[in-house]
């Protein structure tokens, strides 16, 4: 998997590792080479552009972690970008939460591996999830396809709906639903008919079957080896069928990975499984971190940088705590707090973590305390000089006017920010002395 892409990226990183310093030009060159590597791997152009823009932003904006080599930090940035491109850290679970029989609809072009994958999924659900699974082939035009599913069913000891000649796909669907209900199956997998190309008849039939069977999961099976064609197919299907996810087959033979890397960004759909071989158990749950790790092949470095970043956060938190304990809280500290709030998903995110804050949340919203306000406050603080941030009391009228112009704010806003900061600084001072009183003060302030 991903051998060609892995090799190209390794070359890029070989050229920068070992260097003590990296200039902005070095990082630029490396990212340009990553761009070429991704395009050669047949990743969709808009996806590549987005990726590079983000990576560049991070590479220039990211705080330098002194204990980490610059090249390693670049590798980590590329890794993070790949994970994001692939759909984020947490795999999207396969949904079985519906009253049985849970219907799983399998769609895709002929030859994509749909029938084999239906059986792979059935095996997985019956073995690891201990579900009672029934499979039914709706491919009325190709009797061989029906028999193929029956044979696979026997092989993995999963029931298949008995074949009745001459029934339409809709009739088979109704029969399958009824059998599944009557015989107490947990899951019904419907293997729809495939064609060699996306056509209207295929789409209409799949849409009708979906409306009859109300699937919990509607999965498109696509061949990863077909690259951007697979992406186009997925888009076409998704326009007619409310897909819930994708399964990409033949990942085992896919050296480039263009389809796998583009799918999520282009279609918005999560890849749920990868087909990783001809054997019937060769189906892997899709995990963006694992895939990104395979593509980069730099697992040790990624782990190292992650650890260093954690240590840095820890050190910063400790430094802040020491400062607060001394009763100090300047505008830089406020800026740090604002940044942290943003990283934790904004105020709403933080408030969500605190118990019993429903009322407070409402009050804050009424007072106009929202994430946009955090950004404005950040803009104001960043328009100040270092001396002003450390000693807000030197801010006279002319300084305030200058800052207001720089931040696109008005002086009243700056005064509000300063007042809020003063109250917080007082509270911090009180906390460092007496504890309880300061906390009460803090809580009052937040309540407006
Ligand atoms: P369908 O026409 O879409 O139902 O395709 P089939 O299920 O009949 O699969 C076509 C061929 O692809 C078969 O020979 C399968 O063994 C093979 N195949 C399916 N999935 C994979 C996979 O993940 N890896 C590999 N190497 N072969 C696969």
From TrEMBL:
Keyword entries, A-Z:
Cytoplasm, GTP-binding, Hydrolase, Nucleotide-binding, Ribonucleoprotein, RNA-binding, Signal recognition particle
Which EC class is the enzyme in?
hydrolase
Gene3D superfamilies the record matches: P-loop containing nucleotide triphosphate hydrolases (3.40.50.300), Signal recognition particle SRP54, nucleotide-binding domain (1.20.120.140), Signal recognition particle, SRP54 subunit, M-domain (1.10.260.30)
Q: What is its EC number?
A: 3.6.5.4
Annotated SMART domains? AAA, SRP54, SRP54_N
Q: How does it sit in the membrane?
A: Peripheral membrane protein
Q: Quote the subcellular location field of this record.
A: Cell inner membrane; Cytoplasm
* Pfam families xref list: SRP54, SRP54_N, SRP_SPB
Which residues of the sequence carry a binding annotation for GTP? 108-115, 191-195, 249-252
Keyword 4Fe-4S in annotation: no
Query: Superkingdom of the source?
Result: Bacteria
Please list the residue ranges annotated as the SRP54-type proteins GTP-binding domain.
270-283
Q: Which reaction does it catalyse?
A: GTP + H2O = GDP + phosphate + H(+)
Q: Does the keyword Cytoplasm apply?
A: yes
Broad class of where this protein is predominantly found: membrane
Which family is annotated?
Answer: Belongs to the GTP-binding SRP family. SRP54 subfamily.
Its UniProt domain note says: Composed of three domains: the N-terminal N domain, which is responsible for interactions with the ribosome, the central G domain, which binds GTP, and the C-terminal M domain, which binds the RNA and the signal sequence of the RNC.
| Assembly and interaction partners | Part of the signal recognition particle protein translocation system, which is composed of SRP and FtsY. SRP is a ribonucleoprotein composed of Ffh and a 4.5S RNA molecule.
* Job description of the protein: Involved in targeting and insertion of nascent membrane proteins into the cytoplasmic membrane. Binds to the hydrophobic signal sequence of the ribosome-nascent chain (RNC) as it emerges from the ribosomes. The SRP-RNC complex is then targeted to the cytoplasmic membrane where it interacts with the SRP receptor FtsY. Interaction with FtsY leads to the transfer of the RNC complex to the Sec translocase for insertion into the membrane, the hydrolysis of GTP by both Ffh and FtsY, and the dissociation of the SRP-FtsY complex into the individual components.
Task: Write down what this protein is called.
Answer: Signal recognition particle protein
Q: Which organism is it from?
A: Peiella sedimenti
Q: What is this organism's lineage?
A: Bacteria, Pseudomonadati, Pseudomonadota, Alphaproteobacteria, Caulobacterales
Q: Which gene encodes it?
A: ffh
């Amino acid at each position: 998997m991903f051998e060609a892409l892995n090799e190209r990226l390794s070359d890029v990183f070989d050229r920068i590792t070992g260097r003590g310093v990296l200039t902005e030009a070095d990082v630029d060159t490396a990212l340009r080479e990553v761009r070429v590597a991704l395009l050669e791997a047949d990743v969709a152009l808009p996806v590549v552009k987005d990726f590079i823009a983000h990576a560049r932003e991070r590479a220039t904006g990211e705080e330098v972690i002194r204990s980490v080599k610059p090249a390693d930090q670049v590798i980590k940035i590329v890794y993070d970008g790949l994970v994001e491109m692939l759909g984020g850290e947490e795999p999207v679970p396969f949904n079985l939460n519906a009253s049985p029989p849970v219907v799983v609809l399998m769609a895709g072009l002929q030859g994509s591996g749909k029938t084999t994958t239906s059986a792979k999924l059935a095996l997985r659900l019956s073995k690891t999830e201990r579900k009672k699974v029934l499979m039914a082939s709706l491919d009325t035009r190709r009797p061989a396809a029906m028999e193929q599913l029956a044979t696979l069913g026997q092989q993995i000891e999963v029931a298949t709906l008995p074949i009745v000649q001459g029934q339409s796909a809709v009739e088979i669907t109704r029969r399958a639903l009824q059998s599944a209900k009557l015989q107490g199956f947990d899951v019904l997998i419907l293997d729809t008919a495939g064609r060699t190309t996306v056509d209207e008849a295929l789409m209409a039939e799949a849409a009708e079957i979906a409306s009859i069977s109300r699937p919990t999961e509607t999965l498109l099976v696509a061949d990863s080896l077909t690259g951007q064609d697979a992406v186009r197919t997925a888009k076409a299907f998704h326009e007619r069928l409310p897909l819930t996810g994708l399964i990409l087959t033949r990942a085992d033979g896919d050296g480039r990975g263009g389809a796998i890397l583009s799918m999520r960004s282009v279609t918005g759909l999560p890849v749920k499984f990868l087909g990783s071989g001809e054997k019937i158990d060769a189906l892997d749950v899709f995990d963006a971190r694992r895939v990104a790790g395979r593509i980069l092949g730099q697992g040790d470095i990624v782990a190292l940088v992650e650890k260093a970043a954690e240590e840095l956060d820890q050190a910063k938190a400790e430094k802040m705590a020491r400062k607060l304990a001394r009763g100090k809280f300047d505008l830089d500290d406020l800026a740090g707090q604002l940044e942290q709030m943003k990283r934790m998903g904004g105020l709403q995110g933080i408030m969500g973590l605190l118990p019993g804050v429903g009322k407070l949340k409402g009050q804050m919203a009424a007072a106009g305390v929202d994430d946009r306000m955090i950004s404005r406050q950040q803009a104001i603080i960043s328009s100040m000089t270092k001396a002003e941030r450390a000693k807000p009391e030197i801010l006279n009228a002319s300084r305030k006017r200058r800052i207001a112009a720089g931040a696109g704010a008005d002086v009243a806003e700056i005064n509000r920010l300063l007042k809020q900061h003063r109250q917080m600084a007082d509270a911090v001072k009180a906390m460092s002395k007496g504890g309880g009183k300061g906390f009460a003060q803090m809580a009052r302030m937040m309540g407006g």
